Amino acid sequence: MAEVRARVKLNVGQHSHIPAEIVSFHGLKDGEEHVALIFNEADKNEVPLIRMHSECLTGDVFHSSRCDCGEQLNECIETMHEQGGIILYLRQEGRGIGLYNKIDAYVLQSQGMNTYEANNHLGFDDDLRDFSDAVLMLQAMGLNHVKLMTNNPRKLNALNNAGIEVDKVVGTHAHIKDGNRHYLEAKVKHGSHMLDMEKVPEKK
Ligand SMILES: Nc1nc2c(ncn2[C@@H]2O[C@H](COP(=O)(O)OP(=O)(O)OP(=O)(O)O)[C@@H](O)[C@H]2O)c(=O)[nH]1
Ligand SMILES: [Zn+2]
């Protein structure tokens, strides 16, 4: 069992205009400092929208052209600002292989491998992530019934297997840009992602 350690208000988003709360935890298992961001007191709603977002320093912070992580994170923050929701920000950089190994994988991708081939070439499986700490975080916040924002069936399976009831899966948009099309196509073809490459975000 994990427990909430601290919960405090902060504003987030590109203009620090979105009210939220950040939550830390005691008793998580993998030793990483995972956090939750709660929008509009979503944990008090009956069935909150949640996202399990794996850390991507290059995408989330630097808006790298190689992936869609930063855009997905912004999309979730905007959606949850409107509807309420909870982001579990999971410190699982590089699908669990870590930042330096991901950069090594990028070197191989620059030479023509896809994202999974590069992982395998380095001696890693396609995806090392385990979502049991995400389940502990949900349980610590008293949630066993959610809507899930993802295109990744592994995340849905992880919740189902842990007895968390998922009412609905909400896909994110395809954030295609110069440099990430092959990455997104590999996720659809080899990673079974339910990403609709035609579902582009509306221009604001
Ligand atoms: N190993 C490796 N990891 C990558 C690469 N590109 C992005 N990542 C990592 O992939 C993870 C993306 O995770 P999520 O944002 O949870 O997305 P997802 O599993 O693709 O599923 P969605 O919920 O549909 O977005 C992050 O940890 C990134 O750092 C890559 O080329 N190689
Ligand atoms: Zn990324």
TrEMBL record:
Gene name in the database record: ribA
Keyword annotations: GTP-binding, Hydrolase, Metal-binding, Nucleotide-binding, Riboflavin biosynthesis, Zinc
Pathway(s) the chain acts in: Cofactor biosynthesis; riboflavin biosynthesis; 5-amino-6-(D-ribitylamino)uracil from GTP: step 1/4
Function field: Catalyzes the conversion of GTP to 2,5-diamino-6-ribosylamino-4(3H)-pyrimidinone 5'-phosphate (DARP), formate and pyrophosphate.
One Pfam family matching this protein: GTP_cyclohydro2
Biological process according to GO: riboflavin biosynthetic process
Protein name per Swiss-Prot or TrEMBL: GTP cyclohydrolase-2
Coiled-coil region(s): none
Gene3D superfamilies tied to this protein: GTP cyclohydrolase II
